Amino acid sequence: MEELSKRKQKILRALVDEFVSTAEPVSSGDIKAKYMPEVSSATIRNDLAALEKMGYLEQPHTSSGRVPLPQAYKLYVENIIPDCVLTPAEIKYIRSSFDKKVDKVEDIIKQTAKVLADVTNYTSVIVVKNFKEVLVKEIKLVPIGDDTALVIVITDNGVLKDKTIDIPKNIRTDVIESANRLVNKMFGGKTVEEILEPYDIVDAEMERFRSLFEEIVEIIAGYNEEGTDKVYMEGALKMLDYPEYNNIDDARKFLSVIGEHEQVASLLDSGEGIEFSVKIGKEESGGLDKCAIVTAKYVVNGKEIGQAGVIGPERMNYNKVISVLNYLSKAFDKVIDGKKEE
Questions:
Q1: What is the CATH number of domain 88-129+229-341?
Q2: Which of 23, 141, 217, 260 is 20 to 30 A off residue 173, Cα-Cα?
Q3: Cα 215 → chain centroid
Q4: What number does CATH give the domain 6-79?
């Protein structure tokens, strides 16, 4: 496709910005008055006509202005999207959301999805990778009473799990310590998938802790939940606030797709080595017309643990969405690191 001049790029960016803001066709007069007063209306009209011929814009009606097509949004995102700084109020809200005491990583993920939906005002989705791939680094047994202990599972992606189990009443501390060593000898450094494979305990010393081992395996199996990626969604109905989805058939199609979590997870999959992914238009967004999906990989300690994404109309505020995803990924990493140090 023909490379755009700097002026055409500026006009295209102005048109996308204005359409994102108003959802109304944009005229040459709008662009001149709000974005490019130094350029004549005739020049802007000529460039708009050229951009239309090149497949970036369309004119819904002869007498109306123009609206961006998927190709315009893609170019906007790839080449001419400016940096966006979050407002002090948005930053304060994000920080305060993670300042609260949260005991479970699952709750942190849910909170991240909620913040993402609230700040962008679009539908948010977070997909946590298959738990079977997680490596168990350490398991801690912490006595918390005469006949109970806390089992803490620490993994390589920062996911901490804990659950209270029953233990023999008045069990000696040295026995707990011995059990702790044996548990880590058996499970430390193994993936969840390896731990869940059938095994026989043949060591006589381990035999007396068989019930403990079985309880820990049961805990890990419970977290695994059928061996699939886990999907967290917030703001599913926010899309219906936008005029693009006033049509009942489009609304039904959208709700049908996001109701299938496996399909949503596949839509967010951006492939290896891609930090941010932007899918625009029906062909790229799983058949969702007038829709776009922006996805970021979430990494903890250098390892990808899942993806966070925003689903919105084609005219979504890409600039803000990418900035929020970037800010939240850093906040999420800090919170997870904080939990690991507790």
A1: 3.30.450.40
A2: 217
A3: 32
A4: 1.10.10.10
Which two structure tokens, joined as six digits, stand for 155?
């993994």
pLDDT of residue 104: 64
C-alpha–C-alpha distance, residues 342 and 334, integer Å: 13
Q: Which residues touch 223 (CB under 8 Å, ≥6 apart)?
A: 131, 153, 161, 192
pLDDT of residue 201: 45
End-to-end alpha-carbon separation of the chain, Å? 54
The rounded distance, in Å, linking the Cα atoms of 69 and 175 is: 68
Give the pLDDT confidence score for residue 198 in this predicted structure.
Answer: 57
Domain boundaries, the chain: 6-79, 88-129+229-341, 132-227
Are 216 and 103 in contact by the 8 Å Cβ rule? The answer is no
Which value, in Å, is the radius of gyration of the alpha carbons in the chain?
26
Rounded Cα gap, residues 59 and 49, in angstroms: 9
Could you list the mean pLDDT of each consecutive 10-residue stretch along the chain, which spans 342 residues?
85 95 94 96 95 94 87 85 79 84 70 93 86 78 82 71 77 84 84 70 57 76 63 90 87 86 81 74 81 85 79 91 87 64 46
pLDDT at 251: 86
pLDDT of residue 332: 73
- The token pair that represents 286 in the structure block: 């799983």
Enumerate residues 6+ apart whose C-beta is below 8 A from 225: 131
Tokens of 140: 């801690």
- Architecture in CATH for domain 132-227: 2-Layer Sandwich (3.30)
In this prediction, residue 166 carries a pLDDT of: 82
Cβ proximity of 313 and 293 under 8 Å? no
Asked if 295 and 283 count as a contact pair (C-beta separation under 8 A), the reply is no
Q: In what helix (H) or strand (E) does residue 304 lie, and over which residues does it extend?
A: strand 303-313
The CA-based angle 17-18-22, given to 5 degrees, is: 125
Cα→Cα distances 204→167, 210, 212, 331, Å: 19, 10, 14, 47
Say how far apart CA 88 and CA 228 lie, in whole Å. Answer: 38
Lookup result for tokens 């643990």:
305
3-state SS class at 161 = strand
